[in-house]
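Tutorial, part two.
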Amino acid sequence: DVENGRRGPFVGEKLELLAELLELSEEDTAKMYDLAGQFKGNLPYDIQNTLLHDQVGELALTALRLSKSIDQPEAKWKQLIRELEESKAKSKKEKK
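Running the prediction step on this input gives:
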């Protein structure tokens, strides 16, 4: 029913369970959270608590607001994303 648009997407822990049962990759899970959030007009489930209640969320909101007032904000965001991806890859290597 969800896939055919007869009912809205799952929310919260049900999304987590669905991702686990379907053995979705991290990327596919994030896409599912994004689509469910867009459908409901909400933030994606996996970042709600972080963005709304954690200190890093306050920093992210500040960064988003600041990016609206700079030249080439997309390039800055792409650079930040690359740096975060590199950091994540390095962290994974160190854990092995």
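The chain is about 75% helix and 0% strand. In part three we will examine how such features are distributed along the chain.
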